[in-house]
Amino acid sequence: MPAQRPLKAAVIGLGVGAHQARALAAHPGAELVWLCDLDNQKLATLGSELPQARQTTHDDAVLTDPSVDLVCIASYDAAHHRQIITALEHGKQVYVEKPMCLTTAEAQSIRRALSAHPNLQLSSNLVLRTCPLFSKVRSAVQAHDIGALYHLDADYLWGRKEKLTSGWRAAADNYSIIHGAAVHMVDLVLWITGMRPTTVRALGSRITVADSAQRHNDFAVLLLGFEHHMTAKIAAHGGCIHPHFHTLKVFGTQATFLHDSSGTHWVDSADPSQPPRPEHADYPAKQHRSRALTSFVEALLSGNGTPLVPQEDVFAAMSVCLAAEQAAATGETLTIDYL
User: Fold this and answer.
1) What is the spatial order of strands in the sheet that 231-237 belongs to?
2) Which of 259, 97, 261 is CA-nearest to residue 184?
């Protein structure tokens, strides 16, 4: 049944979570009731902007509050699993920053918890789906406007070495550039194609952070195999010398789509005298990113809607990333077991 009152919502982690808190506070179907962060200064700063929400540095106060309907988890990666499980055990809908978790065992336990509480749902902050440019590419692919797909090339150019060499990522026991960055491009490729890869091979390195405290790879490249011989290459460049950007190339039998820092266009002919068609759909369109969360709120309120990032798609992207992490460690081509 559709909700008869606004969803009472809480946010844990006020980095990215600060944007989520603002989106919830502005949504007519939600009531922001808690802000939680380990940093008192972050709490005080956002709390002065959003005074309707109570403040705490203890996540249990939020996760066990019986009045809370929805918890947005934007804490450090290693905390996600525990916070998700606790939220579900206390009857809360969950919206979680990527990655959902860090290991297959954690993902399986989240799946079991959701199965034990079929009235609860989970979504994730996979925000590239909100970008009008990528939505337009998806529509063209789904309509077969570029013919039969045979390859996609997607790079996450993070260009933020400082985030890897200081702060919580440098101190983390098991930070993953695949879970933290490549996951966005994995989800984008699965969403655009409407297909799931069957195999993955992966390589990684830590060349750009070799002189730092970061002990884990800052770069990873994934080769995904699909049915009917289609492929995709996905790379995550944590410490690259490049502004933050998401490149995408889509190759079909009738057309090619190209998006990189030099421009965005469609190529409809192999004839060099035929110019490419420029594409002007909005990118990066950060102003739309809250739609990943608000669509989840609206689906919960309606009782039968589908959010922009459905639960099954979160598990699919996580399945690919977990298999890729294992493939990078073993050097093997692995079959992807979907959770």
Assistant:
1) 277-278, 263-267, 256-260, 245-252, 149-157, 231-237, 219-225, 199-205, 334-335
2) 97
Q: With 0.90 as the threshold, say if the pTM is over it.
A: yes
Distance between CA atoms of residues 149 and 155, nearest Å: 18
pLDDT of the chain along its 339 residues, tens only?
Answer: 344 689 999 999 999 999 999 999 999 999 999 999 999 999 999 999 999 999 999 999 999 999 999 999 999 999 999 999 999 999 999 999 999 999 999 999 999 999 999 999 999 999 999 999 999 999 999 999 999 999 999 999 999 999 999 999 999 988 999 999 999 999 999 999 999 999 999 999 999 999 999 999 999 999 999 999 999 999 999 999 999 999 999 999 999 999 999 999 999 999 999 999 999 999 999 999 999 999 999 999 999 889 999 999 999 999 999 999 999 999 999 999 999
Q: In angstroms, rounded to a whole number, what is the distance separating the alpha carbons of residues 177 and 233?
A: 15
What's the DSSP call for residue 178?
Answer: I
Q: Which residues of 123-145 are buried (b: 16+ CB within 10 A; e: fewer)?
A: bbbbbbbbbebbbbbbebbeeee
Q: What is the DSSP annotation of 273-304? A: TSPPEE----SS-GGGTTHHHHHHHHHHHHSS
How far apart are the C-alpha atoms of 278 and 157, rounded to whole Å? 22
Beta bridge partners of 200: 224, 334
Please give the angle made by the CA atoms of 169, 175 and 180, to the nearest 5 degrees: 90
Q: Please, is 103 exposed, middle or buried when counting C-beta atoms within 10 Å of its C-beta (0-12, 13-18, 19+)?
A: middle
Note the pLDDT tens digit of each residue in 312-338: 999 999 999 999 999 999 999 999 999
Q: How far is CA 175 from CA 102, 122, 170, 196, 336, in A?
A: 9, 23, 8, 25, 21
Residue type, 161: K
The amino acid that residue 26 corresponds to is: A
Cα gap 131→288, rounded to integer Å: 7
Q: Are 202 and 220 in contact (CB under 8 A)?
A: yes
